[in-house]
Amino acid sequence: MTASPQTVEPFDLVIFGGTGDLAARKLLPALFHRFLDHQLPPSSRIVGVAREALDDAGYRAQLREALIAICDARQLDEFLQQVFYRPLDARKDEGWDDFAAFIGAEPDHVRVFYLSTSPELFVDICKRLGHYGLNQGKSRVVLEKPIGRDLDSANRINDAVGQVFDETQTFRIDHYLGKETVQNLLVLRFGNALFEPLWNSAHIDHVQITVAETLGVGHRGAYYDRAGALRDMVQNHMLQLLCMVAMEPPSSLAPDAVRDEKLKVLHSLKPIDAGNAGQLTVRGQYRAGVAEGASVPGYGEELGNAKSDTETFVALKAEIGNWRWAGVPFYLRTGKRLAHRVSEIAVTFKPVPHSIFDAASGSLTQNRLVLRLQPDEGVKLWLTIKHPGPGGLRLRHVPLDMSFAEAFGVSQPDAYERLLLDVVRGNPTLFMRRDEVEAAWRWAGPILAAWSDSGEAPRPYAAGSWGPSASVALIERDGRTWHDDNE
Ligand SMILES: NC(=O)C1=CN([C@@H]2O[C@H](COP(=O)(O)OP(=O)(O)OC[C@H]3O[C@@H](n4cnc5c(N)ncnc54)[C@H](OP(=O)(O)O)[C@@H]3O)[C@@H](O)[C@H]2O)C=CC1
Ligand SMILES: O=C1O[C@H](COP(=O)(O)O)[C@@H](O)[C@H](O)[C@H]1O
């Protein structure tokens, strides 16, 4: 992470997929918030691109409707003056001449091409950008995840994109790396003398990473059904979180110093394949249930295909085969329509070697450091203390609790706000390098193959629950339980 100057040089940001879900829910709101903070130079342009036949006014009206709930109408209208639209089909030549003329190929001007479309379109879009010389100078391309659906397709995409944009121009986004707590993990680990000496298999019992959503698949079924939870969340976001927890101290915060260390972790992950996937992984799919107080349909009904075998839940036990982490399990779980929306990393330390307290004092509990990514970003350290007052020695397990919002009195910027400006500034630290994406696919591929070869359907779970009971069994077999902060 470099220092964040408040200003950035003027830029054009083209969002391919400008009418899509991600653009409306995340990218445009993030840009609007940067506009409010005066980080969108007045000459900068945001250009939405998709096939829908719209003009600037039509696109602005569409965005106005989507964004009005989160903002002041006057400021929104001011922001929308910097927003434009060009209809294009990534796969057809029509319209590209006009588009290229509108953007201009001035090499010293920052141009960001954000590919917020299905990865199948990445190659077509990049080839056309190259054809018009829009890849020159300060041009950058942002690739949304997942990049491909396996190692081969990721290689094909990366090769083709690499023919047009070099690696320094290519920003593979994983928005989890832009979340405040994830960046704070680096500071917590490497800015405090307290943790690093304990950050290894001698002192850490196990690590849990949970990304639980209450939402269902919604209208993203066409994409999601081809992906599933392992491709959608584990191959990218969750492995990146695991890397941030497990990596060795980088020599500096230079982009490649951090990414080299993450890559070593990915290379050290022990394989999960047909031989052990049955013991180490659980796939699930939600059925009808009650989520956040309302009755909701099951995945098949929501999708309109009751026969789908796509998983909406994954739990797995990963191990990192290196000196620091030998024998320390990393339990990962993620799913849609779970009981609560919560993303967190829980690091549980080993018990003290010998208890000096008698049974009447209560039992000792292992220390646990919980990094909460959302909601209520913050850090909690669970400690054992003495219950205050007379009445004998009674042990209590309590959190040292820091909510970032309470401590700093400001709400945290969305991950995309930070990452979009990092692209404009040309800072790739929080983006994935090609070899990281490939290493992640190399590990995830055999799991997908094992599931497909087994022919087993995902285990059903009720919407609003914590997933299939097999997920509980996965961790309980090792004498542990999933962390629940509400306990
Ligand atoms: N939505 C989310 O929460 C997240 C999404 N992502 C990733 O972001 C990407 C986009 O996702 P999302 O916004 O949900 O997808 P959507 O299906 O909502 O949007 C797809 C967009 O691509 C456009 N598009 C489709 N075909 C073409 C074409 N041939 N030429 C030009 N534009 C085209 C569509 O418009 P039109 O049909 O009019 O052309 C639409 O604007 C995906 O890779 C997804 O995995 C990543 C993280 C989160
Ligand atoms: O990338 C994705 O992430 C979202 C979850 O992101 P969050 O910031 O809201 O936690 C997930 O819903 C989506 O399926 C996936 O593509």
UniProtKB/TrEMBL annotation:
<protein>
    <recommendedName>
        <fullName>Glucose-6-phosphate 1-dehydrogenase</fullName>
        <ecNumber>1.1.1.49</ecNumber>
    </recommendedName>
</protein>
<dbReference type="GO" id="GO:0050661">
    <property type="term" value="F:NADP binding"/>
</dbReference>
<dbReference type="InterPro" id="IPR001282">
    <property type="entry name" value="G6P_DH"/>
</dbReference>
<dbReference type="GO" id="GO:0006006">
    <property type="term" value="P:glucose metabolic process"/>
</dbReference>
<dbReference type="InterPro" id="IPR022674">
    <property type="entry name" value="G6P_DH_NAD-bd"/>
</dbReference>
<feature type="binding site">
    <location>
        <position position="232"/>
    </location>
    <ligand>
        <name>substrate</name>
    </ligand>
</feature>
<dbReference type="Pfam" id="PF02781">
    <property type="entry name" value="G6PD_C"/>
</dbReference>
<feature type="binding site">
    <location>
        <position position="336"/>
    </location>
    <ligand>
        <name>substrate</name>
    </ligand>
</feature>
<keyword id="KW-0313">Glucose metabolism</keyword>
<feature type="binding site">
    <location>
        <position position="175"/>
    </location>
    <ligand>
        <name>substrate</name>
    </ligand>
</feature>
<comment type="pathway">
    <text>Carbohydrate degradation; pentose phosphate pathway; D-ribulose 5-phosphate from D-glucose 6-phosphate (oxidative stage): step 1/3.</text>
</comment>
<keyword id="KW-0521">NADP</keyword>
<feature type="binding site">
    <location>
        <position position="213"/>
    </location>
    <ligand>
        <name>substrate</name>
    </ligand>
</feature>
<keyword id="KW-0560">Oxidoreductase</keyword>
<dbReference type="InterPro" id="IPR036291">
    <property type="entry name" value="NAD(P)-bd_dom_sf"/>
</dbReference>
<dbReference type="GO" id="GO:0009051">
    <property type="term" value="P:pentose-phosphate shunt, oxidative branch"/>
</dbReference>
<feature type="active site" description="Proton acceptor">
    <location>
        <position position="237"/>
    </location>
</feature>
<feature type="binding site">
    <location>
        <position position="179"/>
    </location>
    <ligand>
        <name>substrate</name>
    </ligand>
</feature>
<feature type="domain" description="Glucose-6-phosphate dehydrogenase C-terminal">
    <location>
        <begin position="186"/>
        <end position="483"/>
    </location>
</feature>
<feature type="binding site">
    <location>
        <position position="145"/>
    </location>
    <ligand>
        <name>NADP(+)</name>
    </ligand>
</feature>
<comment type="function">
    <text>Catalyzes the oxidation of glucose 6-phosphate to 6-phosphogluconolactone.</text>
</comment>
<comment type="similarity">
    <text>Belongs to the glucose-6-phosphate dehydrogenase family.</text>
</comment>
<dbReference type="InterPro" id="IPR022675">
    <property type="entry name" value="G6P_DH_C"/>
</dbReference>
<dbReference type="GO" id="GO:0004345">
    <property type="term" value="F:glucose-6-phosphate dehydrogenase activity"/>
</dbReference>
<feature type="domain" description="Glucose-6-phosphate dehydrogenase NAD-binding">
    <location>
        <begin position="14"/>
        <end position="184"/>
    </location>
</feature>
<keyword id="KW-0119">Carbohydrate metabolism</keyword>
<dbReference type="GO" id="GO:0005829">
    <property type="term" value="C:cytosol"/>
</dbReference>
<feature type="binding site">
    <location>
        <position position="51"/>
    </location>
    <ligand>
        <name>NADP(+)</name>
    </ligand>
</feature>
<dbReference type="InterPro" id="IPR019796">
    <property type="entry name" value="G6P_DH_AS"/>
</dbReference>
<dbReference type="Pfam" id="PF00479">
    <property type="entry name" value="G6PD_N"/>
</dbReference>
